[in-house]
Amino acid sequence: MKPFSYHRASDAAQAVARAAELPGARFIAGGTNLLDLMKLGIEAPAHLIDVNGLGLDQITETPAGGLRIGTLVSNTALSADDRVRRDYPLLTRAIAAGASGQLRNKATTGGNLLQRTRCPYFYDTAMPCNKRLPGSGCAASTPGAVTRPLGVIGTSQACLATHPSDMAVALRALDAEVGTLSADGARREIPLESFHRLPGAMPEHDTVLRPGELITHVTLPAPVGGRQLYHKVRDRASYAFALVSVALILQPDGTGRVALGGVAPKPWRRPEADAALPRGAGAVMERLLEGARPLSGNAFKIPLATRTLAALLKEAA
Amino acid sequence: MMDFDQPAGDSRIDLSRILGQPATRIDGPLKVSGAARYAYEQHDVLEGQKVGYPVLATIARGRITAMRTTAAAAMPGVIGIVTAPEVGKMPKPFAFNVAPLFGGDEVVHYHQAIAVVVADSFEEARAAAARVEVDYAGETGGFDLHGLWPERREDARDPVARVGDFEAAFAAAPVRLDHDYSTPAHSHAMMEPHATLAHWQDGRLTVWTSNQMVEWARTGLASTFGLSEDQVRVISPYVGGGFGTKLVLRADAILAAQAARRLGCPVKVALPRPAVMNNTSHRAATLQRIRIGAEADGRITAIAHTALSNTLPGGRGENAVDQSRWFYAGAHRLFVHHLGEMHLPESNAMRAPGEAPGLMALEIAMDEMAEKLRMDPVAFRIRNDTQVSPEDPDKPFSDRHFSECLTRGAEAFGWSDRPLRPGSRRDGDWMLGWGVAGAYRGGPAMTSGARLRLQPSGRLLVETSMTDIGTGSYTILAQTAAEVLGLPLEAVEVRLGDSDLPASAGSGGQWGAASATAGVYAAGLALRTEIARRLGVNDADTLVFEAGTVRGSDGARSLADLAAEGEIVAEDAIRFGDFRKRQIVATFGAHFVELGVHALTGEIRLRRMLAVCDAGRILNPVTARSQVIGGMVMGVGAALMEEAAIDTGRGFFPAHDLAGYEVPVHADIPVQEVIFLDTADASATPLKAKGVGELGLCGVAAAIANALYNATGVRVRDYPLTLEHYLDELPA
Hints:
The complex is a heterodimer. Chain A contains 13 helices and eleven strands. By secondary structure, chain A is α+β, with helices and mostly antiparallel strands. A five-stranded antiparallel sheet of chain A has the order 4-5-8-6-7. In chain A, strands 1-3-2 form a three-stranded parallel sheet, covered by helices on one side. In chain A, strand 6 (177-181) and strand 7 (187-191) form a beta hairpin. A seven-stranded mixed sheet of chain B has the order 4-6-2-14-11-12-13, sandwiched between helices. Helix content of chain B is 25%, strand content 27%. In chain B, a hairpin with a 2-residue loop joins strand 22 (426-427) and strand 23. Chain B has 18 helices and 33 strands. By secondary structure, chain B is of the alpha+beta class. Chains A and B meet through helix 8 and helix 13 of A and helix 4 of B.
């Protein structure tokens, strides 16, 4: 591990001010991903700013009838919150499908959104990886590579990786927004839709966050009701990343929303696919996965996504 | 030395009161409280321990042309760096090793250890190791076994065994099967990574390590470092799982010992988790072809099993065909094992080497054959059971109850209620299927010794180099000693895993329990003789050892009283005679599985599992059951998820941790039941016991594959049975 300086911030303004003074600084909260990556030499920040003391660990109601989730609310607390369980059961289900109880106790709301990919080539520092080392190439796209865990849509020549979060898939279906603060005092409310980036030629940037910009909260709009289901398919029954996960919100009139995990560099949702819900899983996936470029080892993710949505529609009916 | 040169007759062990009873692990409290110190945790045995971190090759094949260590050496805390080119080529530690572990400039596999950086702390060593720069001249290599298969599957020029005229008999058989099967490479993925603390003093080397075979490790270190065996001490009291990858030395031991010698301080090295997959060993992938011909009544007339597995040049691969030579009858037989030389990391033994992947294929084929014959797969197997070697009618099995495993299991599982037609039973969206498979694994035994000390306190100390790799050795050896000396279990203390103690069989190949208990039994009889001598009695057999006392014609004395006059010590070993080779000593089992397959998502969820085992006398039903259910869990992994996928372009396993190489979690495992047949194999050991540690794994995956077929009607012959193999064939 490269030596780094460690700073504790006591409020958000101080945290972003520190970050502005310390180029290359990273915020750390639960550390469930960043610490691993530092130990493996995949990330080597020169400075860490510990944000656990910021006090942003409350879930409060918004004037619009939604919830404002402090960035430090743990995954466990968020999934167990009575209001979330009642009004946003999709979120509870998605969080519970991820990681393990121990990890969810430590992992935070903001940190969950900032997880790095689990692409095996990203994890091996001897391998070329444009996400880890811009311009070095993509080991996953060379002949003979193991492609089963990789993405089928939204990927690029430079990067085939997926985003691993379950929580983010639910937040995408719920039209959440990510609230941020920058050192100049600017605050942004970034729709989750545009929070994670597609890799294009710059896969090193997972999100649209600017250097030193801090996630302070996530806002859920007023509850949308309907049946809310999340199903994560994986090779073992628990504690694994998704092959495919499907978030579904189905209204009594047959309309609704669908988002996917495990297939793309970001939670995957398209309005035109939502619009096809009354016509069934096949019609949704035709639109949702139109333009997919599956690889030899992961083409099954497309029929799997369709079948999983069909199973959820059956359950929701 | 006690020679076991004829089958055991009736003995006091048949009336055992402690052996065979369900004793919980005597080392359990130490393990759950953290008091059991593993190799990397020997913080207090030596002052001044330094930490080594390996530098690993990042090419699959080639040569190191330059290594630059100046920057790394200047990093904080760094004490020294030892590189492979500077050390030069070292002898291979042990015949069983395949890849070089360290030394020289040649790279034969990805993540081969090429340097070790030693520092005051783990973090400093790791940081500096990342700064070592290496230039390579890479070479291309062969990494894809499939390319060799079309030719090898037809090639029977060099068979392992050939009996009769397989080709003619197969062609003439009215019912025939001819299919290909595949199993992927597997990683041992044990909980405790390889680790060693090494210390040199006065030309003698002591290592605290995690190794299944203390003697082999000592031999390996002696040959590597040019020492005599008595200059090497190996201490391995607790092993956090091995599954075969700790049968022989691995790079951690060589790096630690080499660095400790060069730097003049104790050095410890643990392999980081991402290194375990490519640096150590794995179970080879196999491609298999099975042909079976049978009469309409179900009698097999022709059977052929051909397999190809990957190995580095000079290795043995994974012989997936041997068990098929002895499992089922049939007059005309052909068995071929091809080595596919690949430049992947070292393939080597992993739990039930050969049988595990071999039965994954054979027991699907048997299920398919039963279906062709319109027979119950249980009845088909029983029809082809045999009491003699199918290759030699004059060579009997010492004790074989395979049919009874099947019938007992069928009865206990309710097999008669199974869904007869594939895809015919449902529970909502879940398609239910039942499957059965047979299990076969040899029952080897090896020379094993022990020393027993009856101490003045009245406690009995058992000393042997035997290891406990999570299997229960401490407990069954204590039970054996307590049984032979008539002491309560609590009066026995067991010391293991030290090459200064009498040499043992070690743990591997499921020979450990049977061999080591026989060694303690031999030492126990020797101790009885010593006790008789102290009593002035000529024949120890005239004495009765019971409840802590020894009773003869002159009355009873407590053993504690007797030993108060001075410790009574005896050492002996068991040696297994050639008579065993004139028969086949093996273990048998049957696995039954019920599972559900989600008709839409294709997810598989097991509902219940049953194993029936015939492994001779069961020394301790608690630890034996743990071994079997652990094997069943590993079988679930092999069936549903375990695959060390190969990057065939670069020649390595990209999975780097237990997220990328999945093994089952609790949520995958249903109710597991284990039935042990009440058998005793007089040719196995004086205790009539055989191992079960590998038997529990054999056949499990095939039972699951057969249940998947029964549930869905889709026959999957390639493992793991992940949903892409059958999703498109499920109901829409």
